[in-house]
Amino acid sequence: MLVSYDLHLHSCLSPCGENEMTPNNIVGMAGILEVPVIAVSDHNSARNLPAVCRLGMEQGILVVPAIEINTAEEVHVLSLFPDVASALDMGEELYAALPAVNNQPDIFGDQLVMDENDCVVDQVEKLLINAVSFSIEAVFEKVRQRGGVPIPAHVDKSAYSVLSSLGFLPPELNAYTIEVSPSGVQKGFVLPGEGKHLVISDSDAHSLETWSMHEPKKLEIERISVPAILERLRGEEQV
């Protein structure tokens, strides 16, 4: 079946995410936009996933647990996990690997942890948009060890992408799926010098307005479930 998806969204936990990107607003907007499969992928943290995933189950929206990891090379890796526990475990390791630099909300924005009622239950101290101390190779390994799928994010962009930071996609990563930004898709971006990849494109929305203007792409999967999504992104599911 062909299913609309958006696997790269930021909540109010990301300092660059608007405070309106609450768990309820995210799940509600997915319903309004008729996107049945989403992933909330905050920078280097998974702490809003418990609330978002619970709300998704209640409202019939599949929420794939995810984190956008900023590697030591300043490469963003969209990382999807089989369950919330795996994502939270990864998030704790990432937080320990962040530099001891505190967030300044008046400059970078709030980093809000919310419950399923959109009540603020905590604010994260360290600045989440910094790079962790793990290399891209280590990040890929750590995500896969937890049953997840690491995806080079927005590879066409001039910053925080594997091409802008490294100049190429290391073959030893064995990355089957890559993400291209919506503008890159419109321009016909093709990853140079590489073999066949599954290309996905997401909104990377940090606000409800930006998300509402995004036209979601469709993914061919056998069923709407987290295992089916991960299998497809690994290249294991034949369609």
SSE map:
Blueprint: E1 2-9, H1 23-33, E2 37-43, H2 49-59, E3 62-70, E4 76-80, H3 84-96, H4 105-108, E5 112-114, E6 120-123, H5 136-145, E7 149-152, H6 162-166, E8 177-179, H7 182-186, E9 198-200, H8 208-212, E10 217-220, H9 226-234
Parallel strand pairs: 1-2, 2-3, 8-9
Antiparallel strand pairs: 1-10, 3-4, 4-7, 5-6
Helix pairs in contact: 1-2
Roughly what is the average pLDDT, rounded to an integer? 95
Please state the structural category.
alpha/beta
Name given to the CATH homologous superfamily: Metal-dependent hydrolases
Radius of gyration: 16 Å
User: Can you summarize the main beta sheet?
Assistant: 6 strands, mixed
CATH T-level fold name: TIM Barrel
Unreliable stretches (pLDDT < 50, length at least 5) are none
Order of strands across the main sheet: 7-4-3-2-1-10
Give the percentage of residues in beta strands.
Answer: 15-25%
State the helical fraction.
25-40%
In DSSP terms (H or I, runs of 4 or more residues), the helix count works out at 9
String of helices and strands: EHEHEEHHEEHEHEHEHEH
Q: What is the total domain count?
A: 1
Query: What would you call the shape?
Result: globular
Number of strands: 10
Report the CATH C-level class. Answer: Alpha Beta
Q: Name the CATH architecture.
A: Alpha-Beta Barrel
CA(first)-CA(last) distance: 9 Å
Task: Supply the key terms.
10 strands; 239 residues; single chain; alpha/beta; six-stranded mixed sheet
Write up this protein.
- α1 (23-33) links the parallel β1 (2-9) and β2.
- The strands form 3 sheets. The chain has a 6-stranded mixed β-sheet with strand order 7-4-3-2-1-10, with helices on both faces. It has a two-stranded antiparallel sheet with strand order 5-6. A two-stranded parallel ribbon has the order 8-9.
- The protein is built from 9 helices and 10 strands.
- The chain has helices spanning 23-33, 49-59, 84-96, 105-108, 136-145, 162-166, 182-186, 208-212, 226-234; strands at 2-9, 37-43, 62-70, 76-80, 112-114, 120-123, 149-152, 177-179, 198-200, 217-220.
- The protein is 31% helix and 21% strand.
- α1 packs parallel to α2.
- It has a single domain, classed as TIM Barrel.
- The radius of gyration is 16 Å and the shape is globular.
- The chain has 239 residues and is of the alpha/beta class.
